[in-house]
């Protein structure tokens, strides 16, 4: 028994030291250099954003580390507005998933001791309008073992709109919205369907207005600023859920 334990101990120590499932972080030697991030930016049409916590303007002394373009007063005035958060590249609606770091000073959960740091926000954000740029950025991150997250509007109740030490794909710019009354998959034998073709970054308030103009209804989230992509993938609920079920 003692021999078995002595054999197992080194194996456990080795596994604990280098877990194979861990992603790269800024403290690792494998983390890309600023020059490598700059090269990625050039490759994806200059659409890479370095994360700046939106409320860092409320924290004197962060200049040089962060440089938020918004005033502290504007941040405080809009902090409870989900639509406003959806318009900021890094911000999310539920700040506990960012460890409540870098909150504006007028928010109830504000704590000076918590400080202002990136916390669980992504390190960089891809803010592109081209699907090809998304593919390039995701392969680049995967090749370097960097965590990838996707943000549409930041409403995700499970916190998947953000993630520590990650590269975020912001889908806000993918907002196409059209109707095709004769759509069907290529080479399909099924009859054509009357459908809406909507980009993942579109918000349900806009989709609902479009559907109404077409004499149609859609199952949406309760908040008009909720994004289409996350709502469908997350099994979202809304005013018509009791009649048509959850999104899926």
Automatic annotation (TrEMBL):
Residues 118-248 form the FAD-binding PCMH-type domain. The keyword Signal applies. Pfam families: FAD_binding_4. Residues 1-17 form the signal peptide. Keywords: FAD, Flavoprotein, Oxidoreductase, Signal. The keyword Acetylation does not apply. Its cofactor is FAD. One of its GO terms (molecular function) is oxidoreductase activity. InterPro entries: FAD-bd_PCMH (IPR016166), FAD-bd_PCMH-like_sf (IPR036318), FAD-bd_PCMH_sub2 (IPR016169), FAD-linked_Oxidoreductase (IPR050416), Oxid_FAD_bind_N (IPR006094), Oxy_OxRdtase_FAD_BS (IPR006093). Belongs to the oxygen-dependent FAD-linked oxidoreductase family. This is FAD-binding PCMH-type domain-containing protein. The lineage of its organism: Eukaryota, Fungi, Dikarya, Ascomycota, Pezizomycotina.
């Amino acid at each position: 028994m003692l021999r078995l334990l002595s054999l197992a101990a080194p194996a456990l120590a080795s596994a604990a030291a280098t877990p194979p499932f861990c992603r790269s972080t800024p403290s690792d030697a494998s983390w890309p250099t600023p020059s490598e991030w700059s090269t990625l930016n050039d490759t994806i049409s200059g659409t890479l954003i370095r994360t700046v916590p939106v409320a860092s303007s409320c924290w004197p002394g962060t200049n040089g580390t962060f440089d938020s373009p918004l005033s502290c007063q504007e941040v405080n005035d809009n902090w409870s507005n989900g639509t406003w958060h959806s318009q900021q590249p890094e911000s999310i609606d539920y700040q506990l998933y960012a460890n409540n770091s870098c909150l504006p000073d007028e928010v109830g959960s504000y704590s000076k001791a918590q400080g202002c740091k990136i916390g669980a926000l992504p390190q960089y954000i891809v803010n592109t309008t081209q699907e090809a740029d998304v593919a390039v950025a995701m392969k680049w991150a995967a090749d370097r073992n960097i965590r990838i997250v996707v943000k549409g509007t930041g409403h995700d109740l499970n916190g998947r709109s953000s993630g520590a030490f990650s590269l975020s794909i912001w889908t806000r710019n993918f907002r196409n919205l059209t109707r095709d009354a004769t759509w069907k998959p290529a080479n399909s034998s099924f009859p054509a369907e009357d459908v809406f073709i909507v980009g993942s970054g579109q918000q349900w308030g806009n989709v609902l207005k479009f559907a109404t103009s077409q004499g149609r209804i859609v199952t949406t989230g309760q908040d008009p600023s909720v994004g289409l992509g996350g709502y469908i993938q997350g099994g979202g609920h809304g005013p018509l859920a009791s009649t048509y079920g959850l999104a899926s």
